[in-house]
Specification:
The chain is of the alpha+beta class and 205 residues long. It has 2 helices and 15 strands. It has a 5-stranded mixed β-sheet, with no helix packed on it. Strands 5, 7, 12 and 13 form a 4-stranded antiparallel β-sheet that branches.
């Protein structure tokens, strides 16, 4: 009889343990879109809470992962204050790791297209070529063109697209330099008439 009682108590204890495990909260993990979910932040819309966990760059004919430093810059976007002007429900923004660089130090530029209003399409496959980017007021990338084919995922707004090539510049003259982007969107969309914020980079000797 004692053996049966002990066995019964063991089964009860095991059942209580399993019930406690099944009621625990799951851990956060990467979403299907390749972004990392974050806790709500006051003033930040829900669609911006999923920050990029990966970015891609071209290495010849290959597409490879961008350096972790670039991803860290992109993940600051929800709180970044100097976003591009909102025009017809969309805006484009460029970001760098810092605003002061040394002569010949590489300046890497992250590009973001955000559509906070409904009714737009984001052509999120890439990394898309950067067009109409200006450095010190001069065109520093290919000019904008509408001649393109797109056969990839299209996402409805509201949303955000980080899937652009990362520009790289160096400066051989000290002082202030500017970078501005006017080519947001996929080339198949023609010119969306968007203009980014103007980055003001200080170069020191």
């Amino acid at each position: 009889m004692n053996r049966l009682i002990r066995r019964f108590l063991s089964i009860l204890a095991l059942s209580a343990f399993l019930a406690g495990c099944s009621g625990s909260e799951p851990q956060h993990k990467a979403s299907d879109s390749g972004t990392s979910q974050q806790q709500p932040i006051a003033g930040v819309p829900k669609y911006l809470l999923a920050r990029p966990s990966e970015l891609y760059v071209r290495d010849g004919d290959k597409i490879v992962n961008a350096p972790a430093e670039d991803i860290s810059v992109a993940r600051r976007y929800p709180e970044f204050q100097d976003k591009g002007e909102l025009r017809k429900g969309q805006r484009i923004t460029i970001m760098t790791a810092k605003t002061t660089y040394r002569l010949e130090e590489e300046v890497r530029v992250i590009h973001v297209l955000e559509s906070p209003e409904a009714g737009h399409e984001l052509h999120v496959m890439g990394p898309k070529q950067i067009q109409n980017e200006f450095v010190d007021g001069k065109l520093a990338s290919p000019a904008r063109t509408g001649l393109a084919v797109y056969n990839g995922r299209v996402m409805k707004s509201p949303g955000v697209d980080f899937n652009y090539e990362i520009s790289s510049y160096t400066f051989d003259k000290p002082g202030e330099h500017t970078i501005e982007w006017k080519g947001g969107g996929h080339p198949i969309q023609a010119d969306l008439k968007l203009e980014s914020n103007v980055l003001r980079i200080t170069v020191t000797e």
